[in-house]
Amino acid sequence: MKTLMGNAKNINLIIGLLILISFLLLMIVSFFYTPHDVTAMNVANKLKGPNSENWFGTDEFGRDIFSRIMKGTQTAFFVGTLTVTIGVVFGTLIGGIAGYVGGWIDEVFMRIMDALMAFPGIILALMLVAVFGSGIVNTSIALGLIAIPSIARIARSGFVQHKEYEYVLSAKLIGVKPFKIMFRHILPNVSSPLIVAASVSFGVAMLAEAALSYLGLGVKPPDPSWGRMLKDSQAFLKSAPWYTYAPGIAITFMVLGFYMLSNAIRDILDPRSN
Amino acid sequence: MAYIIRRIILFVVTMAIVSFITFAVFQILPGDPIRTMLGTEADEVQVETLRKELGLDQPLYVQYFDWAKGLVTGDLGESIRFSMPVKELLMDRLPVTISLAVITLLIVIIVAIPLGIFVAKRQNKMSDVVFSSITQVGMAIPSFWLGMLLILYLGMNFSFFSISGYVPWTESIAGALGAILLPALTIAIPQIAVKFRYVRNAILEQLRLDYVRTIRSKGITEKFVMYKHVLRNSMIPILTIFGLITAEVVAGTIIVEQVFALPGIGQLLITSIGYRDFPLVQGIVMYITFAVVFINFLVDILYSVLDPRIRLN
């Protein structure tokens, strides 16, 4: 049983990292080079199947799908990073204050977080996008706001537990400022579950961005988005099935990479969770 | 009883904050909703008349209480685009979304529970790795893409399935099934891939307990142990999971209705965002969120009835 867990952990870590590093490299390269111009249209070359020139085929405007997948990694990582940053910064701040200060502040903060979590995620996202408008930054902000409550809950439970520990009591006794106690003393000790949650949030954010873009309410042109590529490919499902494979597989692998990584991190940081 | 009252209070407080957030978010909107409704040609008098008529000249808190009072009495306001009560529009679309959600739930229950039992009986290294991989892929695959794949492989090859649109049950049961089955599978497959492991874990937890060892030592067949004792005791955690699934299925219908062009509530929501029909958006958001919170509330109550220990916590 032990060796099995060891293997499963390593499999998650190895495959997860392999997937994410590949996408990261693809993104870095895409800043300088793509095999074809991602926006150049060539109607004579439209909806070609995969071939030596266009590895993943071409879309309805004759654009190279592989190049567009490469460019799409930029959008995916941008949305993921901004979303997770907003979620972790504000989630930790809110959860940390609620847990450390306690009392009515805790009660008010957490009731609001509960109410935010009562909305189905996609409903909240659609409502925010309806108000703020779509586009890559607005989408990320909306998804970031949605990520806050679950991170706040995790942070709160850590702070509640640690504020009673002796190292915190002694720090208080010698007059360390509350803010410093919270973020210099407690935070590093409660960061493991937050790191795991951040890694999961990356995957969740990328899935949500793809869904919003599929609905036509997420990332707007000219920013390339795998979700919107899928939407566009739906009209050509029968005549050009390869068009739908590439972005679908890209999203699935990217999200899978983050989920596997988060599983591996959880096992490494907290072996008891098994 | 005290437990149930506490849950009811929590439910009311949650819905009050939810309604407040939903109201507040739409106050951030730039521009004057009245001018948007009337267009650029309207004169000052028309604008002010309509503003009074809709109560938008009142202070915000009065507007909120008016709106919230409407919610409680079932009046969700009026759609700008259709000039119809939001409630009527919702009622029109409701049968589609409910059919989809119910068929999806049935598929998940029919497949996930037997699968969980099957897997719990065969616990070994290989199967653990295989099943946890299935779960991870099930979580990672975008539901709308899965829907497109089902259209590509099933919808286009078997004429039984319709890949777009809805057929009412009263018109043709086969037609309705053909229209609902693929979207239902689209939501159900990832749910099954994730949730059968919860069923498995709930059963394995029971199998470890002393009473199972005792009844086994009495020489009772393994089948009897599983179906008469273990399964019954695992139903409590399994029930909670299905409360969760219901909420996720309702959320899942929104996107999947788009993939299969089903005229349900989700599709109404997406188009009303496109038309900036905000009273309708607000109404749908409140309605769906209410449904989800209410289902969770019911599951909590049922849970405490089945397992009285919960009430003491």
TrEMBL record, chain A:
SUPFAM superfamilies xref list: MetI-like
Main location: membrane
Ranges where the ABC transmembrane type-1 domain occurs: 73-262
Single GO cellular component term: plasma membrane
Localization annotation: Cell membrane
Keyword Transport: yes
Membrane topology: Multi-pass membrane protein
Entry keywords, A to Z: Cell membrane, Membrane, Transmembrane, Transmembrane helix, Transport
Database matches in PROSITE patterns: ABC_TM1
Ranges annotated as spanning the membrane: 12-33, 76-101, 108-130, 194-217, 242-262
Biological process, per Gene Ontology: transmembrane transport
CDD domains, sorted: TM_PBP2 (cd06261)
InterPro entries cross-referenced by the UniProt entry: BP-dependent_transpt_permease, MetI-like, MetI-like_sf
Membership in a protein family: Belongs to the binding-protein-dependent transport system permease family.
Listed name of the protein: Peptide ABC transporter permease
The organism of origin for this protein: Viridibacillus arvi
UniProtKB/TrEMBL annotation, chain B:
Residue ranges occupied by any ABC transmembrane type-1 domain in the UniProt entry: 94-303
Topological relation to the membrane, as annotated: Multi-pass membrane protein
One Gene Ontology term, aspect cellular component: plasma membrane
Transmembrane spans: 7-29, 94-117, 129-153, 173-194, 236-256, 284-306
Primary subcellular site in the record, as a coarse category: membrane
Cited InterPro entries: BPD_transp_1_N, MetI-like, MetI-like_sf
Lineage: superkingdom: Bacteria
Key words of the record: Cell membrane, Membrane, Transmembrane, Transmembrane helix, Transport
Gene3D superfamilies linked to this entry: MetI-like
UniProt-listed Pfam families: BPD_transp_1, BPD_transp_1_N
Molecular-function GO term, any one: dipeptide transmembrane transporter activity
Compartments, record wording: Cell membrane
Family per record: Belongs to the binding-protein-dependent transport system permease family.
Protein known as: Peptide ABC transporter permease
